[in-house]
């Protein structure tokens, strides 16, 4: 296990290094002036030149990249106009927002985490549970209802579901407040009340997908030889379905879940826009529109970190879920 974890972490670090290099080259090595988009519209030529000097754009690309990565690890000097020393992890300075990029990320990342993590728990419990029950009750009304639920969820879009939930529960019935973000440490009830519609929207759409996937995997596993052998040995249904079939069927579901959760943590743009929340995804979109390259760089790297870490966690879960998997 220790050897496997070390290999996976080294692979993760290498992947993040490649992503950082490609992202940096994409934004700073193209034959155009990156400063013209970062600096506000009222920048004069003197101001543009100072921004180029502060970003080190006159240096070779290797030196620019090394300075950026050094800032993430040890911090760096941003210049007197940007508050001087930037402690690690220093993600640069946003000339559009006129603040350190780390301050922006620190403000918006908890919003995305508060949306995705509870929603992921809901969609995994509902989707996997519904899919497994549907497979075990194949051909019954419960199975048909689960299939109908899956088709409905797969056919709808989040901005439609979110708008309907807002119309019904906020503006017509008045049961819930207008979606907003409050720190869970300040007021847990207000935190949950402001985000519950976002959770339900994501959970409904994703659980429909996971219900179909779980059902298909469970039906395939139930036809495997080891399940028939367990039945022939006279084991109880709970043992056959729970200990043997479920553990084997859920492995592909865990793979997809790791990718989905990792990608969602990188930014749920549509969800945040639909419910008027400013998280990492909406911040990235606004940065693209404004040409705020330091913020775009930071959001891309953070998204990559979430996806890579999610894959590492999935690999580790394989050994605990599926007895056929052994980590060397």
From TrEMBL:
Keyword flag Membrane: yes
One BP term from GO: transmembrane transport
SUPFAM superfamilies with a match to the protein in the record: MetI-like
One Pfam family cited in the UniProt record for this chain: BPD_transp_1
Residues in ABC transmembrane type-1 domain copies: 109-318
Transmembrane segments: 12-30, 111-133, 145-171, 191-211, 245-270, 296-321
Membrane topology: Multi-pass membrane protein
Family: Belongs to the binding-protein-dependent transport system permease family.
The protein, known as: ABC transporter permease
